[in-house]
Write a structure and sequence with these properties.
By secondary structure, this protein is of the alpha/beta class. The chain has helices at residues 21-24, 26-37, 67-80, 86-92, 96-103, 108-115, 119-131, 141-144, 149-162, 182-187, 204-214, 226-234, 248-251, 255-264, 321-341, 358-368, 451-456, 466-472, and strands spanning 13-17, 41-45, 58-60, 93-94, 135-139, 173-175, 240-244, 267-272, 284-287, 296-299, 304-308, 385-386, 410-411, 430-435, 461-464, 479-483, 488-495, 503-507, 535-541.
Length: 557
């Protein structure tokens, strides 16, 4: 997030696009609801009429995969109405003229045609966002999980630059990070192309800095993304894999190809809390300790580095992740030295990978990572600090880009609408979009072990528009077969006008209705994120012995 969570109170207009905020980010969702009750305007743009759409000033339903056209179209109207921030554009941005040439072609009529949104609604949205400032944008996977995910984000940034909605309270571009510590994981280099703090592995100076600190030679080669590893395993190029806390057999697109890849590996290690679908495929399972059994930090969506404290001792044989990793690494160091030098491994005592505590690891992170430079456990003890925190005196940074952008001036980037990799056709006439519900978390590895949550949301429900249901003679709770070019799934229908005609929505929470058997592995060329939000499917009524309906979902229609 460019801005902090408490700053939501300062927003006059909020645009939620591609984020089911109240279900998937309930803390932020509650704050947004409160801001609306206090008079802020809310625009919700989502192919589904999600819960928060109920309290929106304006709800607009775009066809999945048409966000660039929508965002360019809003920019075009803002210019047409003279609502742009001329001073901000002149002082803080560049690339405006080249961008203008592209944006001008996104006329309201053309955008309405591509997105399915009425022209009047486009005008209302543009006038609200640009006219009732400060305005903030909130987005999540509905924007990024597309083959155009990278460009979708650029289109959002363009809109904020055009209206000067950056670097000030109540404004901002706010990607809502999904997992408790996905921000922290990226910050410390759990990415194939970066060391900590987004210092590039291909950058000689950065590499030298880490080589000096660690006393080893480091490869300048960018590694593989998860999707590339799975493709690589299928192609026989990746032979061994060590998975720490991911249930890829259920969470990655095209499950058949994922499971085939796992089975093809010579050796698979899975470090897990539970015996998941992926762990079942492993040669070795290393039992890991959960968040409650260890010390450390989580860096949340507003870049706040906060302490996590051990509440109980690790149960049974499980061990803390960093200790497992360090132990294996130390043995690798000694055995590789053994091979090189011919000396006895027992006599080697590797000087690296020797930590006594999580705090010691944080001290090393701080010494090598500019954004974390001022972090100590003592300083973050009470309520954490928001990076960048360049030094020990720095108070942290709630709002980014107040004086200038990371690259200096903000760059307008011309981006064009592009259809998803797979569009509906005669054989697969529906668009499947996938995501989550409030009650479960991802593959259910954790939440489906909670009896109360299972009672609330015991099974997959395919959201199906009432008109489509009527045409297929499908009643609420009746069984469907949903199939794509890659696989098929059986699940019950939830007949609801949350989704528009021709669109179905499924979660990926249920192993018995394995939604990712259907999804497409096509990725964004830059971000390499798979297009989990659009693929083409066929939906059929399934004559299946129906048990009594198990729908006891709270708030279900
Ligand atoms: N309860 C619960 N909370 C969670 C999670 C969970 O599993 N369960 N997971 C966490 C994680 S890791 C993440 S990443 C976040 C995800 O949080 P979100 O991204 O908010 O959730 P999703 O359900 O993946 O999708 C968001 C919205 O995108 C919409 N959408 C689909 N296609 C399009 C499109 O083409 N354009 C636009 N603009 N929108 C589209 C969907 O209708 C949906 O409402 O949630 C986090 N929070
Ligand atoms: N169709 C579809 N697929 C999707 C998405 C979508 O929207 N649609 N969203 C994608 C997104 S945004 C995400 S983030 C992924 C999530 O995909 P995954 O991360 O694969 O899903 P989880 O079920 O959260 O799996 C996390 C695992 O980590 C384990 N775990 C928890 N804590 C610890 C720990 O401290 N140590 C260790 N070693 N293990 C631990 C849990 O037991 C669990 O098995 O799914 C992606 N897949
Ligand atoms: Mo995520």
């Amino acid at each position: 997030m460019t801005n902090n969570i408490a700053d939501i109170d300062n927003c006059k207009t909020m645009l939620i696009i591609g984020s089911n905020t109240t279900e998937q980010h309930p803390v932020i969702g509650t704050r947004i609801r409160r801001a609306v009750r206090n008079g802020a305007k809310l625009i919700v743009a989502d192919p589904r009429a999600i819960d928060v759409a109920n309290m929106a000033t304006l709800y607009i339903r775009q066809r999945p995969g048409t966000d660039i056209a929508l965002l360019n179209g809003l920019a075009q109207i803002i210019l047409q109405e003279g609502l742009e921030d001329k001073e901000f554009i002149a002082q803080r941005t560049e690339g405006f003229d080249a961008w203008l040439k592209v944006v001008e072609t996104y006329t309201p009529a053309r955008v309405s045609e591509i997105t399915g949104i009425a022209v009047d609604d486009l005008f209302t949205a543009a006038r609200l966002y640009a006219g009732n400032k400060p305005s903030a944008i909130f987005y999540a996977m509905g924007i990024t999980q597309h083959t155009t995910g990278h460009n979708n984000v650029l289109a959002i940034a363009n809109l904020a630059l055009l209206t000067g909605n950056l670097g000030k309270p109540g404004a901002g571009v706010n990607p809502l990070r999904g997992q408790n510590n996905v921000q922290g994981s990226c910050d410390v280099g759990a990415l194939p192309n970066y060391f900590t703090g987004y210092q590039r592995v291909i950058d000689d100076a950065a590499r030298e800095k880490f080589q000096k600190a660690w006393g080893v030679e480091l490869s300048p080669k960018v590694g593989l993304t998860v999707g590339e590893m799975i493709k690589g395993a299928n192609a026989g190029q990746v032979r061994a894999m060590w998975i720490v806390g991911e249930n890829v057999a259920m969470s990655d697109p095209d499950s058949h190809h994922v499971v085939a890849a796992m089975n093809k590996l010579d050796f698979l290690v899975v470090q897990e809390l539970f015996m998941t679908e992926t762990a079942e495929l492993a040669d070795v399972v290393l039992p890991a300790a959960s968040f409650a059994e260890k010390d450390g930090t989580f860096t949340n969506t507003e870049r706040r580095i906060q302490r996590v404290r051990k509440a109980i001792e690790p149960i049974g044989d499980c061990r803390v992740d960093w200790e497992i990793v360090c132990d294996v690494a130390r043995r690798m160091v000694s055995s590789s030295k053994f091979q090189v030098s011919g000396s006895e491994p027992e006599t080697m005592e590797p000087e690296t990978w020797n930590y006594d505590s999580a705090e010691e690891i944080m001290n090393e992170i701080a010494s090598l990572t500019p954004q974390y430079g001022g972090v100590t456990y003592a300083r973050i003890d009470a309520k954490g600090l928001q990076w960048p925190i360049p030094n020990k005196e720095h108070p942290g940074t709630p709002i980014l880009h107040t004086q200038q952008f990371t690259r200096g001036k903000g760059m307008f980037s011309a981006v064009e609408h592009q259809e998803p990799a797979e569009s509906p056709d005669a054989a697969f006439p529906f668009t499947l979009t996938t995501g989550r519900i409030l009650q479960h978390y991802h593959t259910g590895a954790m939440t489906r072990r909670v009896a109360g949550l299972e009672q609330l949301a015991p099974e997959e429900r395919v959201e199906l528009n009432p008109d489509d249901a009527a045409q297929m003679n499908v009643g609420d709770g009746e069984w469907l077969r949903v199939s794509s070019r890659r696989g098929e799934v059986q699940a019950r229908a939830w007949v609801t006008d949350r989704v528009g005609r021709g669109v179905v929505f499924m979660t990926f929470h249920y192993a018995e209705a394995l939604t990712n058997a259907l999804t497409n592995t096509a990725v964004d060329p830059i971000a390499k994120i798979p297009e989990l939000k659009v693929c083409a499917v066929k939906v059929e009524k399934l004559e299946r012995e129906t048990q009594e309906s198990m729908f006891v979902m709270v708030g279900g229609k």
